[in-house]
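Listing S7. Sequence submitted for prediction.
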Amino acid sequence: MDFKLFTSSELKGVIKEWRVWMLKRAGKLNNQNNSWQLWRQHNKPTELLAFAVIKQQLDYIHNNLVEAGFVSNVVNWKYSSAIDYAGGKGLLDIKLGGE
């Protein structure tokens, strides 16, 4: 069997098991669930009226991928708008404030 075919098949199973484990673990940590959880339980909207609040929320969104360990720098996630805010051009069309 080809190495790439073998490793991709094996990793697909491991990744699927890991995702299910993560969802079940999150559900166990929340007493309002009885099996698994994908989204956070609360719905606390934040008014984006001040630039400081907007920047704080963008930083939070961009840093989620770093905190989760998917990338080491926010600009390394190709679907993130972080690269646009850092002066580069990402894959998505981002309209920065004031444009």
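Caption to Listing S7: primary sequence and predicted structure tokens for the chain studied. The mean pLDDT is 84. The chain has three helices and no strands.
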